């Protein structure tokens, strides 16, 4: 089981790196190297830090409109996590789905352009089991095929 998890994790890591490399070499159509959401990310980190959260993982990514970007993360039972996805402000639809290791959907949220939350989906989550979870953000944009996205995973500390 552990060997299988390691293989899946490694495959996803290679896939994410390959996607990033391909996106950087696509003729400059959409580059996410200079994080277009840095000010928003900094504000969110400051907000959650004041509430006792620490950043576990964060990553900017190049996404393709209408295609999910799978992210596999280990999570500990009973721990409070905060997940944040930031999509391109010009997209018309944003969705995040989370699945546990048995592929049961444990979270779903959809935002549309013009919603109060707009291009940011943020939610708290407490896993029932210590296991890997898969998070699948997606965004739909009529005018752009390549889009920037950003994800944050934060964890509540005992002190917070």
Can you lay out the helices and strands and say which pair or pack?
Elements: H1 2-24, H2 38-50, E1 53-64, E2 71-75, E3 81-86, E4 93-99, E5 105-112, E6 120-125, E7 131-140, E8 146-156
Antiparallel strand pairs: 1-8, 2-7, 3-6, 3-8, 4-5, 4-7
Account of the protein in words:
The chain has about 160 residues and is α+β, with helices and mostly antiparallel strands. The chain has one domain (about 1-155): Jelly Rolls. It has 2 helices and 8 strands. It has helices at about 1-25, 40-50, and strands spanning about 55-65, 70-75, 80-85, 95-100, 105-110, 120-125, 130-140, 145-155. Strands 1-8-3-6 form a 4-stranded antiparallel sheet. A hairpin with a 5-residue loop joins strand 4 (about 95-100) and strand 5. The radius of gyration is 16 Å and the shape is globular. About 25% of the residues are buried.
């Amino acid at each position: 089981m552990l060997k299988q998890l390691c293989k899946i994790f490694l495959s996803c890591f290679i896939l994410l790196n390959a996607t990033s490399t391909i996106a950087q070499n696509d003729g400059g159509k959409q580059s996410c190297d200079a994080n277009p959401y840095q000010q928003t990310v900094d504000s969110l980190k400051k907000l959650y830090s004041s509430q006792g959260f620490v950043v576990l993982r964060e990553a900017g990514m190049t996404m393709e409109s209408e295609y999910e970007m799978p992210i596999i993360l280990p999570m500990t039972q009973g721990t409070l996590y905060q997940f944040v996805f930031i999509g391109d402000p010009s997209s018309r639809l944003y969705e995040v789905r989370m699945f546990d290791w048995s592929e049961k959907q444990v979270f779903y949220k959809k935002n549309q352009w013009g919603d109060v939350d707009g291009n940011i989906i943020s939610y708290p989550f407490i896993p029932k089991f210590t296991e890997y979870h898969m998070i699948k953000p997606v965004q739909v944009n009529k005018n752009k095929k390549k889009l920037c996205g950003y994800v944050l995973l934060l964890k509540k500390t005992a002190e917070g």
